[in-house]
UniProtKB/TrEMBL annotation:
<dbReference type="InterPro" id="IPR012382">
    <property type="entry name" value="CobI/CbiL"/>
</dbReference>
<comment type="pathway">
    <text>Cofactor biosynthesis; adenosylcobalamin biosynthesis.</text>
</comment>
<keyword id="KW-0489">Methyltransferase</keyword>
<keyword id="KW-0949">S-adenosyl-L-methionine</keyword>
<dbReference type="InterPro" id="IPR000878">
    <property type="entry name" value="4pyrrol_Mease"/>
</dbReference>
<dbReference type="InterPro" id="IPR014777">
    <property type="entry name" value="4pyrrole_Mease_sub1"/>
</dbReference>
<dbReference type="GO" id="GO:0030788">
    <property type="term" value="F:precorrin-2 C20-methyltransferase activity"/>
</dbReference>
<dbReference type="InterPro" id="IPR051810">
    <property type="entry name" value="Precorrin_MeTrfase"/>
</dbReference>
<dbReference type="InterPro" id="IPR006363">
    <property type="entry name" value="Cbl_synth_CobJ/CibH_dom"/>
</dbReference>
<dbReference type="InterPro" id="IPR035996">
    <property type="entry name" value="4pyrrol_Methylase_sf"/>
</dbReference>
<feature type="domain" description="Tetrapyrrole methylase">
    <location>
        <begin position="4"/>
        <end position="212"/>
    </location>
</feature>
<comment type="similarity">
    <text>Belongs to the precorrin methyltransferase family.</text>
</comment>
<keyword id="KW-0169">Cobalamin biosynthesis</keyword>
<dbReference type="GO" id="GO:0032259">
    <property type="term" value="P:methylation"/>
</dbReference>
<keyword id="KW-0808">Transferase</keyword>
<protein>
    <submittedName>
        <fullName>Precorrin-2 C(20)-methyltransferase</fullName>
        <ecNumber>2.1.1.130</ecNumber>
    </submittedName>
</protein>
<dbReference type="InterPro" id="IPR006364">
    <property type="entry name" value="CobI/CbiL/CobIJ_dom"/>
</dbReference>
Length: 496
């Protein structure tokens, strides 16, 4: 009969935080295994030291930790395979093996790599432990999450821009694996607007425990065994924050702010960290219902959706909220400054709300997203023109199309058609054919980044107006634009 493999969480550092089950298994084990670096010291072993006696100890020494190597993952894979073989020899001999893990075995723990290699061959049991995140919250005396809040646990090894986006989009967060990543983590917290909320906890629950506002911590002093915590906002939201206390006061009345936010073309990963931070900080979200639906639900926020044809009214509504002290995000698809809400908000604010701060956060435009799908059709000079004649007469559209076509620039055509505008695409195509070769490539991008995305390249002469709708963006190439292969278009930066 083989022995049993136990993955045992021994908690964050204080031996008294070990579970009764963990203590019993360590004391009764035939073999106790633990991971360590080349120096031989193990935090997990130090936690269980008082319970060790005649057990065989297996020291599993990492071949690499933070140093560089040509094949880091390959070295670790070989190490785990060799370690698993060592433990398998004990199990085959009928010995029970306890692999101790600081915190919880399945929470960024090295035990999991042994479990995956051995659990299909031997009886196993995993004993959970108190995590460093739970210990850090206890050390701070701050709730991690309350009510409907969302907690996100992140590794500090993520790229800072991805960290910033995830931090901005969640209610509360814990960032693990600091040490050498600390500078990047702090930069991500600053970018996401969460640095003032962040706390630093080092070696939670031990005699060496240290806590501090994260912004005040010297990066050179940060060990790997530390956690960044952005705790629950519920308590903070009931007490005036420093930011609220220092809000602009005009005419004796505290006012909020309107931030016009570009959501990008659709995919979540195209949302910039700055935009995610602005959305996370908002108390009210205002916009066309199709766009407000793309903002992750947040129980702290009020969402005000409206029809797509009331830009000025929507802007005034948002500015009224901000004048009353609210932090308001007005959302637009793509970039808010490209045929979108930024112009309406700034115009209404300039005329009727000069006391309300307005800020614009750019986004990835639809033209950029469609262009990227096929290469670089906008690689040289280009123009953006809306074919909608709802806010300007068609003769103005025609004059501008003719001028740009005559100037031989690529053109991104927004708002080409709708249910009530069905003839403009044909009129624009026929006008452009007076200036462009019939074989000029036209990129037809529909619902880019959406569930019904299609991107095609056709000749200008073959553009079918009936296949174009409001969710479509067209990019018409210049005379220098090239179409070397299906689905690839570029406009060289050199001219002539």
């Amino acid at each position: 009969m083989t022995g049993t493999l136990y993955g045992v969480g021994v908690g964050p550092g204080d031996p008294s935080l070990m579970t009764v089950r963990a203590v019993d298994l360590v004391r009764a084990a035939d073999v106790v295994a633990y991971h360590c670096a080349r120096h031989g010291r193990s935090n997990a072993r130090a936690i269980v030291a008082q319970h060790l006696g005649t057990q065989v100890e297996e020291q599993l020494t990492y071949p690499v930790t933070t140093e560089s190597t040509d094949d880091y993952q390959g070295a670790l894979d070989a190490f785990y395979a060799e370690a698993a073989a060592r433990l398998a020899a004990h199990l085959d001999a009928g010995r029970d093996v306890v692999v101790i893990a600081e915190g919880d075995p399945f929470f960024y723990g090295s035990y999991m790599h042994l479990h995956k290699r051995l659990a299909d061959r031997y009886p196993t049991e995993v004993v959970p432990g108190v995590t460093s995140v739970a210990a850090a919250a206890a050390a701070l005396g701050r709730p991690l999450v309350e009510r409907d809040e969302v907690l996100t646990v992140l590794p500090g090894t993520l790229p800072p821009d991805e960290l910033a986006a995830r931090l901005a989009a969640t209610d509360a967060a814990a960032v693990m694996k600091l040490g050498r990543t600390f500078t990047g983590v702090r930069a991500a917290l600053a970018t996401s607007g969460r640095l003032d909320e962040a706390h630093y906890v080092e070696r939670a629950s031990t005699e060496a425990q240290r806590t501090a506002p994260l912004a005040d911590v010297d990066p050179a002093s940060v060990p790997y065994f530390s956690v960044a915590v952005v705790p629950s906002r519920v308590h903070a939201d009931t007490t005036p924050t420093a930011r609220e206390e220092t809000a602009a006061v005009i005419a004796g009345r505290a006012v909020g702010e309107v931030v016009v936010v570009g959501l990008g073309p659709g995919a979540r990963d195209r949302l910039t960290p700055e935009a995610a931070a602005a959305l996370a900080a908002a108390e009210d979200v205002v916009g066309y219902t199709t766009y407000t639906a793309r903002v992750p639900p947040n129980p702290r926020q009020r969402v005000h959706g409206s029809d797509n044809k009331v830009e000025s009214e929507r802007a005034a509504f948002a500015l009224d909220l901000a004048r009353g002290g609210r932090r308001v995000a007005v959302v637009s698809s793509g970039d808010p400054g490209v045929f979108a809400m930024a112009s309406a908000v700034v115009e209404v604010a300039a005329a009727d709300y000069p006391d309300v701060p307005v800020r614009v956060v750019p986004g990835v435009s639809a033209a950029q997203a469609v262009a990227a799908r096929v290469g670089a059709p906008l690689g040289h000079d280009y123009a953006m023109i809306s074919l909608s004649d709802r806010l300007k007469p068609w003769d103005v559209v025609e004059r501008r199309l003719a001028a740009v076509a005559d100037a031989d620039m690529a053109i991104a055509l927004y708002n080409p058609a709708s249910r009530s505008r069905t003839w403009q695409v044909e009129a624009a195509r026929d006008l452009l054919l007076k200036y462009r070769d019939p074989a000029t490539p036209v990129v037809v991008g529909r619902d880019v980044d959406g569930p019904e995305e299609t991107v095609r390249v056709v000749r200008l002469a073959d553009l079918v107006p009936a296949e174009v709708d409001m969710r479509t963006l067209l990019i018409v190439g210049a005379s220098t634009s090239r179409w070397p292969a299906p689905g690839t278009v570029y406009t060289p930066r050199r001219y002539g």
